[in-house]
Automatic annotation (TrEMBL):
InterPro entries: NUDIX_hydrolase-like_dom_sf, NUDT19
Co-factor(s): Mg(2+); Mn(2+)
Keyword Phosphoprotein tagged: no
Basic and acidic residues compositional bias, start-end: 56-78
Alphabetical keyword list: Hydrolase, Magnesium, Manganese, Metal-binding
Recorded GO MF terms: hydrolase activity
Region (Disordered): 43-108
Protein name: NUDIX hydrolase
Keyword Disulfide bond appears in the UniProt entry: no
Amino acid sequence: MSTTNGQWYPPEWPERIRLLSAGELTPVAPRRAATVLLLRDGPYGTAGQDAPQDAQDARGGDGEHTPDELDAAERPGTARESVGAPEPADAAQGPETPPEGPRDAAGGAAGPAVYMLRRRASMAFAGGAYAYPGGSVDPRDERMVTWAGPSRAQWARRLGLDPSEGTQAQAIVCAAVRETFEEAGVLLAGPTPHTVVADTTGDDWEADRAALVARDLSFAEFLDRRGLVLRSDLLSCWARWITPEFEPRRYDTWFFVAALPRGQRTRNASTEADRTVWIRPGDAADGYDRGELLMMPPTIATLRQLVGYGSVADALAAATDRDLTPVLARARVENGELVLSWPGHDEFTKHIPGATGGPSA
């Protein structure tokens, strides 16, 4: 179900909250997961032009193209020097360039765009909701890979783990990079610590991507086979959210931000999504507020936090000082109502009438 805006709200939550409050529900341990807010600068359509709508398909500006749609003269080489700079808009748009969106006073594009996908309505969890590429950590993500960027111990500290948990930190970062490749066709890795691959559209890349999705190939094997270095320096951590204790499918999820590498193009490579779009965070938030775009609290919260940054570089720089205290929903029974809240995010507080008995949770 959805509320007056576009917040995703499962119909089974009230009953599960009641059971948790009464001590009749044992929370399951959350699985570690990672998701990536992939960003790029350039001209994009406004919400009325390119934003995904329930009543119309998103067209133009979604950056989704098959290899046959790309002019051979525009195809990039095998690798490019990169320090995380985003792909220029004209190269990333493909054959159809969308109308330009709002401009700032200096004549530049009004902030970066973020890549989002809509989960298929048939999905058991958050069907129909807009989200970012991401998924659970694969135990094999702990396998050693060639690594560039901050050390594993440094990543552990940044992710809120003990510095001794470097292997766990690597697994989370690897999951972020792997899931972005699996679901968007974008790979944050290169043949050297200072390059990124620039073309992942060939049949051989697709075969490896499919093998990763099927878990026939581990990410470490994939990188080793291709002689690639994982570029952890192209990622910055933005937030951390933990699925509420009353949910049967729980995740401890780190949200990363990253720039679309030069030369690479996004595509809807996920079987879990039926639509994708490049959209400014403010436009997506407006769609949510109008009830047109369905989202879970972590998604709309991170979108709102990105509003106001003038470029991808600005957003990446801001990520360094972000507070990564986990956000965990709380539920309590108060005056015959179930009260559901997310600390620090008052807009998501819900009062559900008709609660019965049980202590506060």
